[in-house]
Design brief:
By secondary structure, this protein is an alpha+beta fold. Helix content is 30%, strand content 27%. The longest helix is centred in the last third of the chain and has 15 residues.
Length: 159
């Protein structure tokens, strides 16, 4: 899905501030450093280079007033998940123009309504805004009936 891929580049740039393994390479593109330099040289190769398992996931576009405002990627491939997990919210992105307008909150709650079962949601340890966002969303969604794991960087719940 082209819109998700386009947003993914912006998302990956954003994530470089929270993960020391995500760097900006000599071409000005974000990449996972352990894959080795020089890395991708064009935006299209950058997305492909960093896409990993996302081709096996469900992709959703978040709309605001009919316009693309972000994306959600859900992993539901049982071979890639822990035995007691059915769904992982892999990636969630709201473009800066649409942040702090409750669009992300509505999209997150709608995302969980897409599938029933055992969910897990991860955040990068240094991404304090995401950690606060997901703690609040999941607490509300589950009526405070969820597990907070790995120093509050992973939440698990059943809906």
């Amino acid at each position: 899905m082209a819109i998700v891929r386009h947003f993914f580049l912006a998302y990956f740039y954003d994530m470089t501030q929270y993960d020391p393994n995500l760097i900006i390479n000599d071409y000005g593109l974000p990449m996972w450093q352990p894959f080795g330099l020089p890395g991708p040289a064009t935006p299209d190769t950058c997305i492909t280079f960093n896409w990993w398992i996302r081709d096996k996931c469900e992709h959703y576009i978040i709309l605001a007033d009919g316009n693309p405002a972000g994306f959600v990627i859900i992993l539901a491939d049982k071979s890639q998940l822990a035995p007691d997990v059915a769904y992982e919210l892999m990636d969630f992105y709201i473009a800066p123009k649409y942040r702090r307008q409750k669009i992300g909150q509505a999209a997150a709650l709608a995302t969980f309504g897409l599938h029933q079962g055992n969910w897990q949601v991860f955040q990068l340890e240094l991404n304090l805004p995401a950690r606060a966002f997901w703690q609040a969303i999941i607490k509300e969604y589950t009526d405070d009936n969820y597990q907070n794991l790995d120093n509050d960087t992973q939440q698990r719940f059943t809906n």
